[in-house]
Design brief:
The protein is mainly beta and 344 residues long. It contains no helices and 33 strands. Strand 31 and strand 32 form a beta hairpin. It is globular, with a radius of gyration of 20 Å.
């Protein structure tokens, strides 16, 4: 079975158990959780609880959606992939840590202070924590949590989105507001790739294909995709996709899904093997897409312009384009989708 939970702009969370059938059954069980506008939603790596980071702090819920805990001083909260820590930002813009099991505060990285923190991201092995923010200038900090929280490096750079390489040795830093991309080698403390805003404008997404290759997607009237070798600094290939919304890469970096009017375009990188998924005339489009960890499923959150057509989450087979399930009962817009680690 596949279980998918998503949170809406009004923090409506839908819980379903999806049987392995091919009919388009409609589900409408909706539970309201969280307090305040959602910033992010994620699962504990072992599925112990759901973490909802909001403007009123972070709220934790059991898999059955019962209240579990509230961390009022944790904004932009995220759980380390090894399940040991929760990192968040307090009201004074300090980076803080909590034990992810006991939820007790623990010794936190010494970063002085930020005026504003834009992003936090753990490396895939849970060793490194990266933070982007502003002080007297834009700064990126990375700490090694396996080594008494020693600071690995601090560099003047602007970013609001991080993406760690699969081997956790390289960090891609994207500025989605001003544009520009920097890839940094944490082990050798050197910059591997720099692309200016003119080449990587603000409307871009990045995804690792492996620890050497980075997929960069720029979207506008169309979606332009390029593959970069960060070791050599050279572009290896490029192609164009239809669509004018954010492209979402799967976990392997070899397939992209893009929302288009009335549907979704799924492209398998560089092959020209594109699939069109028709979502129907009831929806204005899709605002959020999420690939399962095993890349077997694509979840799409729709939005409409009238309350007469409540939004749905569509469960799609990305290899055939078939809509396998429709999860209903929502309001007009689905803004967050989050798969559990086991893809249930």
């Amino acid at each position: 079975m596949i279980r998918l939970k998503f949170v809406l702009s009004l923090l409506l969370l839908l819980t379903v158990l999806v049987p392995p059938v091919q009919t388009q059954e409609v589900h409408s069980d909706v539970t309201r959780i969280g307090r305040g506008v959602a910033q992010s939603v994620e699962w504990h790596p072992r599925g112990d609880y759901i973490l909802v980071s909001t403007i009123t702090g972070t709220w934790l819920y059991t898999p059955e959606l019962d209240d579990m805990a509230h961390l009022p001083d944790a904004w932009l909260a995220t759980v380390s992939p090894d399940g040991r820590y929760i990192a968040g930002v307090d009201a004074d813009s300090h980076i803080r840590l909590w034990d992810a099991i006991t939820l007790e505060p623990i010794e936190s990285p010494d970063n002085g202070y930020f005026f504003h923190v834009k992003a936090l991201a753990w490396s895939h092995d849970g060793r490194y924590l990266a933070a982007a923010g502003t002080r007297d200038q834009d700064l990126i900090y990375v700490w090694d949590l396996s080594n008494s929280q020693d600071m690995v490096f601090a560099i003047p750079n602007s970013a609001d989105r991080f993406l760690w390489s699969p081997d956790a040795h390289r960090l891609a830093m994207l500025d989605s507001q001003g544009g520009g991309l920097v890839v940094f080698d944490v082990d050798h403390r050197e910059t591997l790739l720099t692309r200016p805003a003119a080449d990587v404008p603000h409307a871009s997404q990045v995804a690792w294909q492996d620890s050497d290759k980075l997929l960069v997607s720029e979207y506008g009237e169309n979606t332009d995709v390029s593959s970069w070798n960060v070791t050599t600094g050279e572009q290896e290939e490029s192609w164009r996709l239809p669509g004018h919304s954010v492209p979402y890469s799967n976990r392997a970096g070899d397939s992209l899904a893009t929302g288009v009017p009335g549907g979704i375009e799924i492209s398998h990188a560089g092959t020209g093997d594109d699939i069109r998924v028709e979502t129907g005339d009831d929806y204005f489009g899709t605002l959020e897409l999420a690939w399962s960890h095993n890349n077997r499923w694509l979840a799409a959150g729709t939005y409409s312009i009238g309350k007469s057509n409540p939004a749905e989450t569509l469960l799609i087979n990305p290899h055939t384009g078939e809509i396998v399930q429709r999860f209903g009962g929502a309001y007009q817009t689905i803004r967050h989708l989050s798969w559990s680690q086991d893809d249930r």
